[in-house]
Amino acid sequence: MTGFDVAGLPAPEEQAACPQCATIGGSADRFCESCGAALSEIRRVAIPRGRTALQDPEAPCSDCGNETHVDEYCTACGHRRAEPDRDEADLGGIALITDRGLEHARNEDAAAAGMAVDSGTARQYAIAAVVCDGVSTSGEAHRAAVAASKAGVDAMLAALTASGKAHAAVVAGLADAAKAAVAAGTDADASAAPSCTYTAATVVPTPEGTVQITVGNVGDSRAYWLPEPPAPPQQLTVDDSLAQELITAGASADSEAVQRGAHTLTRWLGADAEPKPWSDTSVHAITVVGPGSLLLCSDGLWNYLPDAADIARFCTGTDPAAAANALVEHALRAGGHDNITVIVIPIGGAHEFA
Amino acid sequence: MSSPEAPGISGISVDVDHNPYLAEGTGTVDAIVSIAAGNDVAASASGLAAPADRVEAIIIDCSTSMLSPVAKFDAAKRATAAAIDELVDGTYFTIVAGTEKASFVYPTEGWPTQASAATRAAATRAVDGLRPGGGTAMGTWLAHVRGIVVQHPGAIIHAILLTDGKDEHETPEQLRQEIALSEGEFTCDCRGVGTSWHVEELRSISSALLGTVDIVADPADLEEDFAAMMRTSMGKSIPDLTLRLWTPAAARIEFVKQVAPTVEDLTHRRVESGNQRGDYPLGSWGAEDRDYHIQVQVEPAAAGREKLAARVSVVAGDEVLGEGLVNAVWTADTAKSAQISRRVAHYTGQAELAQAVQEGLSARKSGDVATATAKLQRAMELAVESGNEGTAKLLRGVIEVDERTGTARLRREVAAADEMALDARSTRTARVRKET
Asked: What is the pTM of this model?
């Protein structure tokens, strides 16, 4: 869990672990002092970072101004000390936003992203990103989401810097994230054990000058490839939901049964999940040519923008931070029923992966 | 007040059961708070270096009416002897004869003595020599116990009061005053033998003094009942527990009720103990569990916000032994806010049941057949629905409900003892445990 940047500040990592042998070396080293492997700089960020990281713990109650809290509740008016409604980060042009929305008491989504940068050439050669949505019927769901998203990014980056094999990296991320989600519930009682969705993507350039995107998905968060027009936008993931199963079986997307099952998950990470909660079809890759945007999001966004074309309109012709912000604002204006989380990864164009 | 099962827990546990979700604009928070004390919650948990002293007072009605029939007084003497038998060595005890005044039976010089084989035998002999004669003034009996217990600050002080008649030789106001003065000084279990006493009168004593009330219709059953009461009392290890309730600014406490094992409204027992904080006395405790229903009205907040509606602490002396939090979360999702906690619903029904029984019996006494029938029929529905078999069985003694048509009518012939048993036991509740 350590080592994630505080967004907006320079990366505090003055040291880096060798991806091959884990020996700690100076971040300026090009090769590992121990095994000789090429070193790369790993940069990571994860949101939400929580109130304690963003606010003064001694801050007075935002409702009544009283200065003392016990168990996070104001000792005068009883209001729970509010977590920030939104946290956002930028990692080398990748925009991440997570927002509580309007109706849920807490934000149980989480997002993490990381990149490997060649220490010598300063070129990004691998990106990994994850969005997780805590299942709100489980207690302390945000713990599973935070743990799984960080573990997934860590495992994918470690595998990518070691071998460069994207499919294996995404599977390694799934495996570590599944373990982390279960571990997040070990000190909770069984009824409160948390669970979450998991949508991951890696981006690696190919020798041919194209870009390979590999996605891994459990649950109903989504990944979209949104190329600049006229190329058509596309949804890269298939929801693990009752609705999707019915649609696959031939039911109409507008039918009542599909609408009812829209948010009933058939796969998830964490409490009560199967030991290997993903299927072989959960991981697949496409090769794309930029420019365009790779978007990862929770259902708090796509509920209001179910078609890839609708989402694409927000992302074309603008920078990732503005696109991410516009998407989240749209979901809030449309009702903000659920937590909203987006990661926008620019590919091609003015970006490094040209 | 005790429950027979000893919970397999250590220390004091406080468990909150409620639906925290509220619709926007509403602010009524209901919670069932279960407090359980384990076997080891003795002197150590009560913040005392040594176990608390115990003082027992047994008050036997020695009015002339106890002689009719003679078997009644003989049974009272045997019952007192049985209770004396249960006294644990070292317990301070005293036997009091109650008439229009109170007098020492044992020890004759007045101050309680410690139980031993010798003192138990001497006390039994003194009781055996009692001769009834005189009137009934229960307030003087309570005053007598109060005079004794000042010698034992911090002790677990318990009295058993036995009578066969009404409080006749003092004014109701005098009795009320004595009860008020005794509140918090000692606990008192009351028993009425025969059917010439008033349930309401004894309940006013037992309720204020955090004890139980019951009818012993047949004098032959007194012996077993007294022994059981004394055994329960010997199981108490904490002199006084307090329920401390913190509520947010501008909140209103609608009620604080014990709902299991019996219904007892504690709302008016509040003593302010600090800013936004009040204390409610829970009496003496052994290894047992009791449930409380708390209803608080808080200021509504916007959807998505969460507020602490109450902090419930269980306190002995100055030490907090357990704590539970009652939160409220506002939501626009009516599927969440419309749910009523199963236990809140159950105990709301049990409190209504106790009230319906008491109001029904009172209407019946005053000849209002229509009200009595309606109230007792409602009571029967509630008792059957909630699985309160004890009360349902007693209700069948006073009201007949045709199972096919649902029509109810009062029974013409009702044994006085059956009616009084229903009244005295109307506050006993069926319990629902938390789903695990």
From this structure: 0.75
For B329, the closest of A64, A102, A105 (CB atoms) is: A105
Cβ neighbour number for residue A61 with a 10 Å cutoff = 20
Contact B249 A79 (CB under 8 A): no
> How far apart are alpha carbons B122 and B132 in whole angstroms?
19
- What's the Cα-to-Cα distance from B366 to each of B199, B362, B363, rounded to whole Å? 16, 6, 5
> What pLDDT score was predicted for residue B2?
40
Residues of chain B with pLDDT under 50: 1-9, 43-48
Q: Does A82 touch chain B (CB under 8 A)?
A: yes
Residue percentage of chain A with pLDDT more than 70:
81
A79 close to B (CB below 8 A): yes
**H helix or E strand, kind and range, residue A99:** strand A94-99
ipTM: 0.79
The predicted structure's pLDDT at residue A250: 83
pLDDT average, residue stretch A166-171: 94
Those residues of chain B whose CB sits closer than 8 Å to some CB in chain A are: 247-251, 276, 298-299, 301, 303-309, 311, 325, 327, 329-333, 436
A105 vs B331: CB contact, 8 Å cut-off? yes
Residue A8: the pLDDT is 33
CB contact under 8 A, B248 and A76: yes
B295 within 8 A of B33, measured Cβ to Cβ: no
Residue B310, min C-alpha distance to chain A (Å): 8
Q: Is B301 helix (H, G, I), strand (E, B) or coil?
A: coil
- Does A80 contact B325 at a Cβ distance shorter than 8 Å? no
Residues of B in contact with A76 (CB under 8 A): 248-249, 276
Largest Cα–Cα separation, chain A = 64
Q: Among A82-96, A169-183, B27-41, name the most confident range.
A: A169-183
Which domains occur in chain B, in start order?
12-47+238-335 (2.60.40.3670), 54-234 (3.40.50.410), 344-424 (1.20.120.1690)
Using a CB–CB cutoff of 8 Å, tell me whether A22 touches chain B. Answer: no
Encode pLDDT of B27-44 as tens digits.
999 999 999 998 776 544
Tell me: cis bond preceding A205? Omega within 30 of 0 counts.
no
B308:A73 CB<8 A: yes
Cα–Cα dist A138/A77, whole Å: 28
Confidence band, pLDDT 50/70/90 cuts, at residue A10: very low
Please check whether residue A335 touches B, CB under 8 A. no
Residue where the block lists tokens 């989240």: A328
d(CA A30, CA B324): 56
For the A83-347 domain, the top CATH level (class) is alpha beta
**Chain B residues touching residue A64 (CB < 8 angstroms):** 249
Instruction: With beta carbons less than 8 A apart as the criterion, state whether A224 and A230 touch.
Output: no
pLDDT digits (tens, 9 = 90+) for A107-121: 999 999 999 887 666
